[in-house]
Amino acid sequence: MKNLESLIKTYNDFPKKGIAFKDILGIIQDSEAFKELILKMSSNKVIKSSEAIISIEARGFIFGSAISLYSSKPMLVARKPGKLPGELIEENYYLEYGKSSLSIQKESLEKFSSYAIVDDLLATGGTIDCVANLLMRSGKKVCGVVTVVELLKLNGRSRFNFPVESMLSM
Predict the structure, then answer these.
(1) Rg (CA), the chain
(2) Beta strands 114-122 and 52-56: pairing type?
(3) Which pLDDT does position 1 carry in this prediction?
(4) Is the backbone of residue 142 left (phi > 0), alpha (psi -120 to 50) or beta?
(5) Would residue 16 be called left, alpha or beta, if left means φ above 0 and alpha means ψ between -120 and 50 degrees?
(6) What predicted TM-score, i.e. pTM, was given to this entire model?
(7) What is the CATH number of the domain that holds 129?
(8) Count of structural domains within the chain
(9) Taking a C-beta distance cutoff of 8 angstroms, is the pair 29, 125 a contact?
């Protein structure tokens, strides 16, 4: 697989001082690298073992929708406040630079019992933990998480009792 790390830029002190933001958008700007990455992620055992994919806003949508297409799995979304209509389930979470919440449409969860969580990056694990809690609170199984990048020094995977599959560790 093409050297993905060379396509990722680091922006220091963004969005606040002390944060080293990893910008993965260079990967989607290289169509060959993006396609190869999506094919690898789509054939992952976590994806294969799930009935559906749930992607986290916003960059997770990019990868989740492509994985959904290649794996022939339906995709649901976990969105930030005020972005989804209908009856929602919601949970707060903390990340390195603030507090927020994620919501899932309650009715979208009715068709499937097992999910793979897809996001672009695993840092401290707050957003993924939030989605996992929403799913488990709804009686659903989390088969695991698939991310493009994992920041190892932040040890986010230690929060989870399900498989974590990262395509690139930094």
Answers:
(1) 15
(2) parallel
(3) 62
(4) beta
(5) beta
(6) 0.95
(7) 3.40.50.2020
(8) 1
(9) no
